[in-house]
Design a protein that fits this description.
The structure holds two protein chains of two kinds. By secondary structure, chain A is an alpha+beta fold. Chain A is built from three helices and five strands; from the N terminus they run E-E-H-E-H-H-E-E. Chain A has one domain: Beta-grasp domain (Ubiquitin-like (UB roll), Roll). In chain A, strand 1 and strand 2 form a beta hairpin. The longest helix of chain A has 7 residues. In chain A, 43% of the residues are buried. Chain B folds into three domains: 175 residues, FAD/NAD(P)-binding domain; 117 residues, FAD/NAD(P)-binding domain (3-Layer(bba) Sandwich), CATH 3.50.50; 80 residues, FAD/NAD-linked reductase, C-terminal dimerisation domain (Enolase-like, domain 1), CATH 3.30.390. In chain B, strands 3-2-1-7-18 form a five-stranded parallel β-sheet. Chain B has a five-stranded antiparallel β-sheet with strand order 21-22-25-24-23. In chain B, helix 1 runs parallel beside helix 7 and helix 8 runs parallel beside helix 10. The radius of gyration of chain B is 22 Å and the shape is globular. The chains are: A alpha+beta, B alpha/beta. Chains A and B meet through helix 1 and helix 3 of A and helix 1, helix 2, helix 7, strand 21 and helix 8 of B.
Chain lengths: 106, 409
């Protein structure tokens, strides 16, 4: 099972096993990562699962789709490495991925 | 909020879960109880009429938070718990089980229930509705074996179910009493687009057609329409609206009017009691009028105000409403409340399947429907939130970049 490393809004680093096929957001919710809200449940409608992808991983994670790119407009403090974690599917290729949780509340 | 009695949240849906979450985030460290009358921890309802019906999404993935969250947050969850009455003078609830619970603060997040079809024969027709996880599980299983499906009601729920049923290869007839689809929510040109979309996918769409009766013989149901036509199907799904669960509040003497009446901070007339979500008739800070909204956005944002009010703060609920509906490969996103309006301006080309409709009232933008135009939806939410002026001429001119306009404000 791939490992995803979440750095939460308090800076705490957690290594979590996340099953292939679920989203990075679902992995965060299941592991109680602080700061991931995901109020739309992964429909790419709210931007409350906003994360920053560790620069080393940007190539492997890839770019946001058009719809995600638009939804990110609602995110607070969007950066070039911003992604909505509900739109990133966990695969073996992402084993070791480091994501930093953005400010999603407020 | 003094004393040892817990804050109790009645209703373990999206709003109830959010109230608990916001109470903890807001610093409430006392006993917190969440009562739900279903068997499941709080879960997402929107997928129940969408992807969940395909059977490819496990129920566990609908949970808003895993069981461990409630332990960590010390949220005392009681499932299958139904509240029978609230004694406001004594600050006590009585459960169906007979148990009495004292509260120091109370939040009502009781949601809605389906409006049942009551035509002759409906009771014997094993009609499916989509509200709860149990409903979704039953319908997903029934769809697998169905050949021909009648969907009664051409609102969001009915149309989403029709789309899934068609994608699974079922024959579908959709019966809508109004002359157009989603009439409560969208403009006629959007309704017309969806009627064509569904017809193009092979749904028989009947508009301006009621259901007079249903006859059930040996597991087959014959739906008799107001035009006298008969459709024999093996599965009936009805999505004809919901009613707010406000009886508990009403019996406790709280004001109710198409929902539990609350102010713009989600407060009822009782200083110890708040309410949030689909069940409230609320003063909406953004709309500046009273309304009842059925949406995730309302459930979550109003819950935050409700939690703040329980903590003695005042946080006005003032958020742009938004909604979405997935049908086939079209994502409808709605920003604001376009109804009522005096002008609807088309933006883009309907035939392309990607366009928006901007609604104006007294020359002011009040809502935008976007079909496969996520950027315009997001721009609309920003424009509405900021109150950025947009003219009808600008709205109809696709060379005007709405996002740039929103950013520039």
């Amino acid at each position: 099972m791939p490992k995803i490393i979440y750095v939460d809004i308090n800076g705490a680093r957690r290594e979590c096993n996340v099953a292939n096929g679920v989203s990075v957001m679902e992995g965060a919710i299941a592991n109680g990562i602080a700061g991931i809200l995901a109020i739309c449940g992964g429909s790419c409608a709210c931007s409350t699962c906003h994360t920053y992808i560790d620069p080393e991983w940007m190539d492997r994670v890839g770019a946001a789709s058009d719809i995600e790119d638009s939804t990110l407009e609602l995110a607070y403090d969007r950066k070039p490495n911003s992604r909505l974690s509900c739109q990133i599917e966990v695969t073996d290729k992402l084993d070791g991925l480091v994501v930093h949780v953005a400010q999603n509340d407020g | 909020m003094t004393g040892k009695a817990p804050i109790i949240v009645i209703g373990a849906g999206q709003s109830g879960q959010q109230i608990c979450d916001s109470l903890r985030k807001g610093g409430y460290e006392g006993h917190l109880m969440l009562l739900g009358d279903e068997a499941s921890l709080p879960y997402q309802r929107p997928p129940l009429s969408k992807k969940f019906l395909t059977g490819t999404l496990e129920a566990e993935r609908l949970l808003l938070r895993p069981a461990s969250y409630y332990e960590q947050q010390k949220i005392d969850v009681h499932l299958n718990a139904r509240v029978d009455s609230i004694d406001r003078a004594a600050c006590r609830l009585r459960l169906r089980s007979g148990e009495a619970l004292a509260y120091s603060g109370l939040a009502l997040a009781t949601g809605t229930r389906i409006r049942p079809l009551t035509v002759p024969g409906a009771a014997d027709a094993n009609i499916h509705y989509v509200r709860s996880l149990a409903d979704g599980e039953r319908l997903a299983a029934a769809l697998k074996n169905a050949r021909r499906v009648a969907v009664i009601g051409g609102g969001f729920i009915g149309l989403e179910v029709a789309a899934i049923a068609r994608e699974q290869g079922r024959e579908v007839v959709l019966i809508e009493a109004f002359e157009r689809l989603m009439a409560r929510a969208v403009a006629p040109q959007v309704s017309a687009f969806y009627a064509e979309l569904h017809r193009g996918h092979g749904v028989e769409v009947l508009l301006g057609t009621g259901v007079d009766a249903i006859r059930t013989v040996a597991g087959e149901h014959t739906v008799v329409t107001s035009t006298g036509a008969e459709y024999t199907v093996d599965l009936i799904v009805a999505g004809i609206g919901v009613v707010p669960n406000s009886e508990l509040a009403e019996a406790a003497g709280l004001a109710c009017r198409n929902g539990i009446v609350v102010d713009d901070c989600a407060r009822t007339s009782d200083p110890l009691i708040v309410a949030a979500g689909d069940c409230t008739w609320h003063m909406n800070g953004f709309l500046q009028r009273e309304i009842r909204l059925e949406s995730v956005q309302n459930a979550v944002d109003q819950a935050k105000s409700a939690a703040a009010s329980l903590l003695g703060q005042s946080s006005v609920y003032c958020q742009v409403p938004w909604f979405w509906s997935d049908q086939y490969d079209i994502k409808l996103q709605i920003a604001g409340i376009g109804m009522p309006h005096d002008q609807a301006v088309l933006r883009g080309d309907v035939s392309s399947g990607a366009f928006s409709v901007c609604y104006f009232r007294d020359g002011v933008l009040v809502g935008v429907d976007s079909l496969n135009k996520p950027a315009e939806h997001m721009a609309a939410r920003k424009l509405l939130a900021q109150g950025t002026p947009l003219s009808a001429a600008q709205a109809g001119d696709t060379s005007v970049d709405l996002m740039q306009l929103a950013r520039g404000a």
